[in-house]
Amino acid sequence: MFSAPKGTNDLLPGRSGRFAAAVAGLLAPAARAGYKLVDTPVFEETGVFLRVGESTDIVTKEMYTFEDKGGRSLTLRPEGTAGVVRAAIEHHVDRGPLPWKVRYAGQMFRYEQPQGGRTRQFFQVGIEALGPEDPAIDAEVVTLAVRAFEEAGLPNVTLLLNSMGDEACRPAYIATLQAFLRDNAAALCGECRARTETNPLRALDCKRAECQATLAAAPVITDSLCAPCKEHYDEVRAYLSSLGVAWTEAPRLVRGLDYYRRTTFELVHGGLGAQNAVGGGGRYDGLAESLGGPRLPGIGWALGVDRTLLALESEDAPFEDPEAAEVFVVPLPGGKDGALRLVDELRTAGVRADMVFGDRGMKGAMKAADRSGARVTLIVGADGGVELKHMDTGEQYPVPFAEAAARAAAAEQRDESIEDTP
Ligand code: HAM
Predict the structure, then answer these.
(1) Residue ranges matching CATH 3.30.930.10 in the chain
(2) Do residues 116 and 273 touch, judged by C-beta distance below 8 A?
(3) Under CATH, domain 15-169+225-314 is a member of which superfamily?
(4) Is 300 in the pocket of ligand 1 (CB under 6 A)?
(5) 257 CA to middle of ligand 1, Å?
(6) 78 lines ligand 1 (CB under 6 A)
(7) CB 183 within 8 Å of CB 229
(8) Over the stretch 180-239, which tens digit does the pLDDT of each residue have?
(9) What's the whole-model pTM score?
């Protein structure tokens, strides 16, 4: 017997409706804001990803890299931004109207140690806006992440906001941080001591309590921003304030990819364990150039749909499956042909309809009708006789076969409008 590979999950009916609704909800505000759909390959030349984080775990330890039969080194995408920017360069987006605003959805792959909310294959939705360095577009992008969770039914996320500075001010900050880490090396774990030399910023991300206590006193980047970065960050925050978007300053927030400049952010949810980030993003003004393209600043985010689903489930929020049957059809012995014709007529008319298959007996069939969630059931006999049953009141009466589908659809709508009446 086979099982799904380590770090992967099967998404099955029961959860899949909510997953699909989450994807649609998360991306709807971005679609209304003019972010058009893009789709890039699930694998890219390995070099595309090497550029996004030569000193990060994602790139050095977690990539699914393989050689194809033609001897090319390819990698399953660990994230969406690098591929989107590669495509933007290849298709000369910089020569057209900017901003180039796009949205995407798809599976990503990272060879991580699986734990609650962390898998090796996971689904992200994302947006990217290429072109302007205008702080107003940072505010738009950040706001759309907040609106995404609101629309998906998860308003209780916390927005963490930071600025990572740029080439002008970050090196000096890193040197100051490195000096602090060296001075406090005795109080840090082995991994943080190693990071002090390879990637001091990542030390800020250490989850160990003893390191956190020491790092609480570490210098923060927002105190070291150069004047243009500080002005940019101030403007972003002023726009967010005026939009009524609440955030928490997170001056020690470091992201797991190297390409970030200036605005960075994460969205976290309290109902998840250690893996509490449901989304994150930021500005990546040097990425296009590092991929061999022209100067093409950008900002975007990606939201983890698997974690969003876990967060929704942790809130026990009610969910009405938009794909649940509205009308259910139960054939009595000899009534299957009539039942098949009725569900087909209902479906063609735009009603979600389903029926019982197999020989389950009346009791089992009515149980299936109950479980389907349909408000109206049609019971069809061998002679074409049909009974219409309102599932909530139990009221039941005969209807002519020729009118059965239309009457069921009308009854279903009437029941719905009764339910909607306050
Ligand atoms: P990221 O923070 O690496 O950013 O991932 C975004 C989100 O994807 C995370 O907040 C999390 O919800 C989800 N995620 C990441 N890894 C896993 C995993 N192993 N299992 C389950 N969910 C996961 C990026 O990927 C950037 N490309 C975001 C971005 C777009 N920045 C600019 N534009």
Answers:
(1) 15-169+225-314
(2) yes
(3) Bira Bifunctional Protein; Domain 2 (3.30.930.10)
(4) yes
(5) 10
(6) no
(7) no
(8) 999 999 999 998 999 899 889 988 888 888 898 899 999 999 999 999 999 999 999 999
(9) 0.94
